[in-house]
Design brief:
This is Transcriptional regulator with XRE-family HTH domain. By secondary structure, the chain is of the alpha+beta class. It is built from 5 helices and 9 strands. α1 crosses α3.
Length: 192
């Protein structure tokens, strides 16, 4: 892909990212310090992106710069996972595209969190597969222990929390749809 083609594709990509997140130009301007008119011209292709502008936008969208500009593939198709630590847990992002369904490997340390957590609610839909260990899912009035190989899925507007009461880490594959996207599981090919 030629440089001009990459630069021409940046505007529509920026617009799509902003719309996926439900963000207005004014909101993006406020969070980045880039004027609304500059953002509009970037999205329409009326202005060429500069490194300074792209770094501000990458930070605002919480993506790597190469994802923002959709840099040409360099021959390595692997997703380079960068673990994140939050609230004593380790999250390993397994998907690179912003918006829509996101995949994570989550590692709950032994005895996490060390107390009975308050159940939380938020927009979205979650699907969990326990890779190893045991995870207690608190879902409204229910408490379910998931063993390795078991799956749970639920609307995240239902109060929920997770507990690892075991003496070993629990590893989970999680798929999350921020706008409530559901996973579609097929046991056999669809009829034609």
């Amino acid at each position: 892909m030629e440089l001009d083609e990459v630069l021409q594709a940046v505007g529509p990509r920026l617009r799509a990212m902003r719309l996926e997140r439900g963000t207005t130009l004014a909101e993006l301007s406020k969070s980045t310090g880039i004027s609304v008119s500059t953002l509009s011209r970037l999205e329409s292709g009326g202005r060429r992106p500069t490194l300074e502008l792209m770094l501000l936008l990458a930070d605002a969208y919480q993506v790597q710069l190469d994802e923002l500009i959709d840099a040409p593939v360099t021959g390595d198709p692997r997703v380079h996972m960068r673990p994140l630590k939050r609230h004593g847990m380790t999250y390993v992002p397994l998907s690179r595209r912003p918006g829509g369904l996101q995949a994570f490997k989550q590692i709950y340390p032994p005895g996490w969190p060390g107390y009975e957590p308050e159940q939380q609610v938020h927009e979205g839909y979650e699907w969990l597969y326990v890779l190893s260990g045991r995870l207690r899912l608190l879902l409204g009035r229910h408490s379910v222990v998931l063993e390795a190989g078991e799956v749970a899925e639920f609307d995240t507007r239902t109060p929920h929390a997770f507990v690892n009461e075991a003496d070993e880490p629990t590893e989970v594959l999680a798929l999350f749809g921020p706008q409530g996207e559901r996973m579609h599981v097929r046991a056999r090919p669809a009829a034609r």
